[in-house]
Amino acid sequence: MVKFTAVALALLLSGVAQAQTRIGEVSTTFRLVGPNDKVLVERYDDPKVDGVSCYVSRADTGGLSGAVGLAEDPSRFSIACRAVGAVRIKGEIDRGKKGEEVFSERTSFIFKSMRVTRFFDAEKQSLVYLVWSTKLIDGSPYNAVAVVPLNS
Q1: Is 7 helix (H, G, I), strand (E, B) or coil?
Q2: Domain limits at 124?
Q3: What does the pLDDT look like over 63-97, one tens digit per residue?
Q4: pLDDT tens for residues 12-52?
Q5: Is residue 10 part of a domain?
Q6: 21 C-beta neighbours (distance < 10 Å), count
Q7: DSSP state of 66
Q8: Would 139 be classed as within a structural domain?
Q9: Domain count of the chain?
Q10: Beta 77-89 vs 126-135: how paired, if at all?
Q11: In this structure, is residue 138 part of a structural domain?
């Protein structure tokens, strides 16, 4: 119970959303021992923008190391963000060139995470979402972008 409370508090204080919903998964590699390698599809709702959901597909490494959370997942992602209702920005969002991190999820035990950063394109009145990876020593150049127009 204490662990659950600490995790919930950390999520509230971070301001970064976790995957609200796992939409589905497909097995890609059979593993004789432990779970199979998979491609996961997850939905993340933007916490500061009503009516926008991002769907991210990502690799999930199985086997024994994956079963106990020690595997490092590949840094290859796909993202599709869509208006799923009336788009309305709640409060203030970061409109600077560095954007604002809106989602983050660990993809290895300690050193690596998948992140989604939101940028605001003032000229085209659009929100641009970038999925990318960080790693303690070196990041990954693999990334993907999705755009949601504000005036659709």
Answers
A1: helix
A2: 17-149
A3: 767 666 666 666 778 999 999 999 999 989 999 99
A4: 333 444 457 999 999 988 878 888 888 889 999 999 999 99
A5: no
A6: 12
A7: H
A8: yes
A9: 1
A10: unpaired
A11: yes
